[in-house]
From TrEMBL:
GO cellular component: ciliary basal body
Record has Transferase as a keyword: no
Biological classification of the source: Eukaryota, Sar, Alveolata, Dinophyceae, Gonyaulacales
Name of the featured protein: Tubulin--tyrosine ligase-like protein 9
GO molecular function: ATP binding; tubulin binding; tubulin-glutamic acid ligase activity
Length: 105
């Protein structure tokens, strides 16, 4: 238990809100069940697992901009913006990094 004046700065299982990959998966799961109510964020691709799906999305939206965010970072650290025409060297790096990429609105 807690002492009367004790405080907490983390709640159990709150990493599902703070980790971008877990949040994306949870929102996507809810969107499948309630599409209208959970159309609250652009579709995301969790890399490296969804890399091929992201490549397909880039081919279909060649003028789109994309934002890549590391899964477990904060305060804007590590965020990158890309066009759909990602250079091959960057493509290889992103295919191996843990992150989430979404269409930049």
């Amino acid at each position: 238990g807690f002492h009367p004046l004790q405080r907490v700065n983390h709640f159990p299982a709150s990493w599902h809100l703070g980790r971008k990959d877990l949040l994306n998966r949870n929102v996507a799961r809810m969107r499948r069940q309630w599409p209208k109510e959970y159309n609250i964020a652009p579709a995301g691709f969790v890399l490296p697992e969804d890399f091929q799906n992201w490549v397909t999305a880039r081919e279909q939206s060649q003028s789109a901009l994309w934002i890549w965010k590391p899964v477990n970072s904060s305060c804007g650290r590590g965020i990158r913006l890309f066009s759909s025409a990602v250079p091959a060297s960057t493509d290889r790096k992103l295919s191996q990094k843990a992150g989430i990429v979404q269409r930049y609105l």
